Amino acid sequence: MPIKKKVVVLLGSPRKKGNSTALAKQVIHGAESMGALVESVYLNGLNIKPCQGCYACQKPENSACAVDDDMQAVYPKLQAADRWVIASPVYWFSMSAQTKLFMDRCMAMFHETEENNRLLKKRIAIVMSYGDTDVFNSGCVNALRSFQDAYRYAGAKIVGMVYGSAEEPGEIKSNTTLMKQAEELGKKLVDG
Q1: Domain of 143: which CATH number?
Q2: What is the mean pLDDT of the chain?
Q3: What is the mean pLDDT of residues 101-118?
Q4: Burial of 160 (0-12, 13-18, 19+ CB in 10 A)
Q5: Domain presence at residue 119
Q6: Nearest 10 degrees: CA dihedral of 122, 140, 181, 46?
Q7: What total of structural domains would you count in the chain?
């Protein structure tokens, strides 16, 4: 029997029924249809402090984050899953603050040496929603570029991105084309 792929979904919206969460649920549906084991983490309810720039995580004798907060419970989930979904709304021309805190704290998983780099070869799907009608005017493109730059540098692979416009919570569900794209992204994330 083949080993089931593990997917962790990082939900960076304060709205549990918001648009980025709705898209993430479609990605989850696609991943589960491929037999993946999926676990979701709502970042908004967690006590995640900013990175302190202490570089304790980069020292060979430590290789872990020195900040004692709720990220300590998230790190094992991130390590156990070789596939991630990061979902965020656009807030003030980039990803949400909850998502940015998470992103910064991913530094503790990165290391210059290949054998200590826990981000190497992770497969990542990005899901975003924004209120403007344009991906550039909304600032969504800023967040997408941040994800691309950070994970490329770390040796992870972004397998795809799904993003779309919706103003009211849950409104994005009416965009059937986008919802289908999100489901397909979930399948692609697992099938590789």
Answers
A1: 3.40.50.360
A2: 94
A3: 89
A4: middle
A5: yes
A6: 60
A7: 1
Q: How far apart are CA 52 and CA 145, in angstroms?
A: 23
pTM for this predicted structure:
0.95
Provide the token pair at 73: 């419970």
Q: Is residue 1 part of a domain?
A: no
| Residue 129 lies in domain | 6-190
Please check whether residue 73 lies inside any domain of the structure: yes
- Average pLDDT on 55-78 reads 90
Cβ-proximal residues to 122 (8 Å cutoff; 6+ apart), any chain? 82, 83, 84, 151, 156, 157
Element (H, E) at 105: helix 97-105
Q: Does the structure show a pLDDT above 80 at 62?
A: no
pLDDT band at 1 (very low <50, low <70, confident <90, very high): low
Over range 158-170, report the average pLDDT: 95
Outline where DSSP puts E strands in 65-156.
83-91, 94-95, 123-130
pLDDT of amino acid 171 = 96
Measured distance CA(61)–CA(124) in Å, rounded: 28
Helix axes 140-154, 97-105, angle to 10 degrees: 10
Whether 173 maps to a domain, the answer reads yes
Token match 């770390």: residue? 154
